[in-house]
What we know:
Layout: H1 2-7, E1 17-22, H2 27-40, E2 44-50, H3 53-57, H4 65-68, H5 73-87
Parallel strand pairs: 1-2
Amino acid sequence: MALVKSNLxxxxxxxxxxxxxxxxxxxxxxxxxxxxxxxFGSKVYRTVVPRTVRLSEAPSFGQPIIVxxxxxxxxxAYRDLAREVSGGASRRAR
Length: 94
């Protein structure tokens, strides 16, 4: 980001951080989430996108997850994320 900011866009800012490919069954994922939230605070969105087979399969069929399997956990997470992002800073974790 520093390279892009210094060479291409000095006004570039991170609006938020999205945790993806999250597997709550692993201690590592839980620890990483905790550390990211502690370090970046309100920059980290509340919505976490899980690792799912359906999310992995969708690109193979040339479809976004919302079309491929609109009721999957991944599709639901991305819809929730879209709502959170469009809601602005007040919808982020504190």
